[in-house]
Each structure stands twice: as C-alpha cells, then as structure tokens.
Amino acid sequence: MQLVDHNTFLQQLAALFESTKDKGTIWLTHKRLIHDGKDTTMKEGDGDDQSREYPCIVRVTDGKKAKFSTKVLSKDLDKFHSAYGALLKASMTTLRKRDKKREKQRAEQLAKRKQRMADPVVINGPKRGNGRRKRQRQVKAALKHEEVKERAAKREEARTMQ
Cα angle at 19 between 14 and 24, to 5 degrees? Predict the structure, then answer.
C-alpha cells in the first residue's frame, strides 16, 4: 500500500476511474487512523477520546495492482472532501442503473411462493377405483407441502435466533 499526498491521491484516483470506465471495480474505504506507529498501550491519561483528534485514512484498490492511500488530518478534511466528492460525482456517470423491472418480477415471484405455501393442498377423489392415481399425487404433494412449511419455519426460527 502506497501512502501519497492528497493531490497525488486524487490524480491517481481519477486515472483509476478512467481506466475502469468500461469494465472494472474499485473499492474505496475510509477509516479513522488510530495507530501511532509505536507500541500502543493504554495509559491512564489516554481515556479522554473527546479531546484527541484522529486523522482519517482513505484507501483505494482495484483488487489487482493499484493500491494507494492518503492520510487526511481533521483540519484538512473539509477541503479534501470537497475535491474528493467532486471527483466521485464526475466519475459516477458510468454506473449502471438498477433494473427495477427484474426486482419487481422477483418480488412478485416471492409473493406467489409465499401465497402457495399459505394455501393448503386440497385432496379430493376416491381412494379406490377411477381417479385413484390423481388422489395419490395430491396426497404426495400435500406431504411435500407440509415438509416445505416445516423447513421454512425452522429457517425463520434460526434467523430470529441470530
């Protein structure tokens, strides 16, 4: 990871956005930097976090070869964020819009599935004679339906436990 100054960081970020304009991914991370480069041990006077100002580290990677970061002090943060925000706004034009039609279809399919699970399977027809196989298929479908309901209930219970 290469630590660079603010201007170099913004220039390299703009170049990275240009190189991944057609295809590619860029990861941006912001973190509060608390490591002083020394052995970090708690001292009795260090309990006052309100008075201490921490710098912010901004990292960029494309997952392959480009990795660089910059350290922004709190006094320079407003100036940096204005330039950084302008660069991000200019570079976000290549993003694809959400496919709302596909999301709507998936939501409708999920609603249909839930509705089918809520509706019981109707079993009708004679036990013997004409229509017997149809009734057997309905019984088998009802058993499978109950099994799916139990699995869904267990999944939901496990989700609420977490």
Answer: 110
Residues, the chain, total? 162
* Residues paired with residue 63 on neighbouring β-strands, in sequence order: none
Q: In this structure, are residues 123 and 139 in contact, taking their beta carbons and an 8 Å threshold?
A: yes
Distance CA 94, CA 17 (A): 9
Q: For the stretch 9-22, what's the b/e string if a residue is b when 16 or more beta carbons lie within 10 angstroms of its beta carbon?
A: bbebbeebbeeeee
Digit-coded pLDDT (tens) for 30-61: 999 886 666 555 555 555 556 778 899 999 99
Query: Of 139, 101, 109, which Cα lies nearest the Cα of 122?
Result: 139
CA distance 141 to 117: 12
Q: What is the C-alpha separation between 64 and 25, in angstroms, rounded?
A: 10
pTM: 0.53
Most distant CA pair in the chain, distance: 89
HEC string for the chain: CEECCHHHHHHHHHHHHHHCCCCCCCEEEEEECCCCCCCCCCCHHHHCCCCCCCCEEEEEECCCCCEEEEEECHHHHHHHHHHHHHHHHHHHHHCCCCCHHHHHHHHHHHHHHHHHHHCCCCCCCCCCCCCHHHHHHHHHHHHHHHHHHHHHHHHHHHHHHC
